[in-house]
Structure formats: C-alpha cells, structure tokens
What we know:
By secondary structure, the protein is mainly beta. The strands form seven sheets. Strands 1, 2, 17, 19, 24 and 26 form a six-stranded antiparallel beta sheet that branches. Strands 4, 5, 7, 10, 12 and 13 form a six-stranded antiparallel beta sheet that branches. The chain is globular.
Amino acid sequence: MAKFNLKRSSMLLGAAAVMLSAGAAGYRDVTGQYMTNPAFLPGWQGAIAAVGEGVGEVWCGAFNIYQVLPDMPAGEYELTVNAFYRCGNNEFAKEHQTGNAELNTAYIYANGNKQVVKGLFEGREAAPNSMAEASAAFAAGDYVNTLKFNHEGGDLTVGIANTGCYFDEWSAFDNFSLKSGDKDYSDLIKNAGFEEGIDLTTIWDEEPNPEDPENPKKIYVETGHWNMMNSANSDKKPDVNCWGGVYRKTNASPYNFGQQVDLPAGKYRFSALTFLRYGGGGDYDGKIISCKGEWKLQDVEKSPKQWWEEKAYTEDDFIANAYLYASFEEAKPTDLATAIELLEENMVYARIKGPWEICDGDYAVMPENETRGNAAGDQIVPEYDVKNVMPWWEDSGKERESAAAFVNEPEKWRQYVEFEVKEPCKVWVGLAKDQNNPAQYWNPFADFKLEKFDDNYNAVEAINSANGAVEYYNLQGVRVANPENGIFIVREGNKVAKKVIR
C-alpha cells in the first residue's frame, strides 16, 4: 500500500489572503488536468443552470464558469464569445438596461481582464426569448463579444460570469474562441460551443448478487466520472437549475458526490464554494421557516441561530454534518460514520461550516434560500429595489442569494481538505452528507477545485484570476475590503503592486 500523509482540514477563510502568506502560497489549479466534468459539465469549472440547443444559459441568478489553460505563452490575445445578458424581465431590461452600468453585470474575462457582455436589447427592438432563439441568433453572428488583452505567460483562466441583478435576469452564451496573432488556441477550450450538456451520469457495471439474484450489485467502473452512490445505497444526484449558477441539496435524501482521480506525488487541496446551514432560515430561537407548502414558522429543537450560539456542531457529529473528503481506499467512502477508523491512515475530511459561523453571527449579510415574503404572503421587497433576492414567496426557496455570494466573495465561502500523496495513486475526492437532518438543512455548492502545490508557481499572480476582481491586502497578506490611509498590496488583473492609499 502507498504511504500518505493525511491531516484533518478546515475551512479556508479568506483564501486569497492566505495565498499571500508563506504557508499556503504556491497552490496551482490543476482541476482540468485530473478531474472530469468538475462542474458536472464537460470541460468547465464553476456551475451553470442548463445547456440546450448547443447554448449554455443561466436564468435568474449570478454565476461563474471558466477553464484554466495551463502554461499559455506570452502575447497579445483575443477572446470572443457569443453572449447576451438581460438584467430583469424583457420590459424592464428594454427600458432601463442599455447604457446603465449598474444593470450590465455580466462579463467575459481572461485572468483579470474583463469585457461587459452585450445587453439583450442593445441596438435592437426584438430579441431572443428562448435557448433555441439564442442559438439561431448566435449562428447568425449576433451578440459577438470581444476581449483583447496582454498575457505575460503562464496559466490563463477564461470564462464568463455575472455578479447578479434582478429577478428574471437571463444570460446565454456560446462559441468561445481564443486567438493570438495568427495562432488559434480555440481547440484548447473544451466544449467551447456547449455541444455537451450537464452530465450527472454515473458509469456502472453489474455483478451477480447471491443474496438477491433479481438485483445485481452495481459496481462503479470508470475512473474520472462522478459517482453519486450515497449512504443509503442509492444514486442520488445534485439539484440543478435552482436559479443561478449553483447546485444544491436541501431537506432531502443523503448524498455523496465523489470522483476518483489519478494523481502524481505532491501536496494537494480539494475545495468547493459551499456552506451547510443547520435547519431552515430565520433569526429565531427554536423556530425555522418552513420551506414546504407555505410561509410559516416551524418549531425545532435548535434554530440555526442556536446551533451557532451554542457551538452545537462538532467535527465528529456525522449525523448533522456535510463534509468534503479525500480517500485513498479502493472503494468510495459512502458513510463517514462507519469509515471513522480510516481517518488516521487513509482518509481525511473537513466539516462544511455554515453561514452563521462564516459570517460570525451577522444575519444581515448571510445568504438565504427563503424568499422575501411574510406569514401573510405579502411581498416585502419591491421587485426592482434589491439585487440578488427573491421579491416574493417561493416554495422550497431558490439559490439567487447563495449564487451571488459565491461569485462576489469566493474567498469567503471556499472550504477545502488538504492531503499529500507520497507516490502516484488513485484518490477519491468529493462532498457528502450521510443523513437527512437536521430539519430543512441547506447545502448549496459550486466550483469544485483541485489544486497542487508547486514550488515554482507565483501564487500572488493567481489571486482571484477566476473572477477578474480588484483585491486589496495589507502588508501582512490579509484582505482589506475598503482600504484607506496606508500602504496596500493591490491585485488588478494579472498585475500586483504596492500602492499608497489616502
């Protein structure tokens, strides 16, 4: 048996800031090199809502999908994408979006370089209103977006994202193309035209089952595809197209989304943008908002607020926890409670922390999936007043708020496990929850990522390249949201510099 160094891991709070410190610097995104369908979508990382008619789309929420092209040569590049964006419903967008920067929130990007995506009604009275019509418009050469940029060499991240706007927002995209001078690198972008859609298939074989001849045993046979087998021995899949670029499980069956990958020796970390809320939403003691049938308060033993105040969740509470894991066993671990003896030698896991922990009890800044109604069914948020929320009640909730949180503050919500491989081997990585409780728990997730430590990799250059943001850090490497009066490290695009801000 191969030898491994394993240790329990914890959430990476402020991932970008930690990357600036000596302890975590040098992790390189190798997801595309070792994982298959990391976003359940061939070729792409992040999360998406749907693919149809050869077009990708996300309706009613923020999103980010991208690919990392390793070791690209230095030079002047041109990224083109057929894409459009609508900031609300057709009537609102047609009247308000054109020329209004606050309502044009979608963009294509390459590392830190961005280009705002064309508005759906920009320069036209009529516009597509379905994926089929979007496909026809793109085939006719409409909605071409072009980003020209200089790349200094090394890994290049290309993608499309939306920070989020109003209810009924919609973006469709197709035909990613990348060129540098007379060289065409478009073939490096896998599934660039979204010919392949979301793939939740597990690759199985069968063997005889002496105990039940009518029901042969299922055997996972193909390395690289997702294995959805859960602790209840069923093939449970993630919820897709719940508004915005995010997948989820909530108040449902146990789940375990794992993938076995072949890895060379090295230090790794496997992560996702995610959280687990213990129970339904609301800032209540002993009550949660019911998400089935109608808006109402439901009695529970502990509310999410009380779970946090009492620190009732623990690393070893396998019933309530969802967790990220890495395992060196031949078979995928499907029940952490029975695999505990593996933890010291062949398995590592990290409890997924919740929004109350991550936001230190500040309920006002937490995402919710409960929508903005009240017990009387009244709408309490005007429809075009607040971005990234639902303005009325929606049974079971939707993912507009979690999707926006993940896109706008990825370093805040990224959680990971870390492990070291001493010699090449197969490793299972995944996300799981073994039991369907506490009542109405909520676990959204997006952007599974596998990173490998590289002594020669400039981690500072890689900070937040996947969303093109401008980031500020103090001289100790801690991220600063609103810098003033001092010297700061400023990351903008693929440039990093010290600046004095007054």
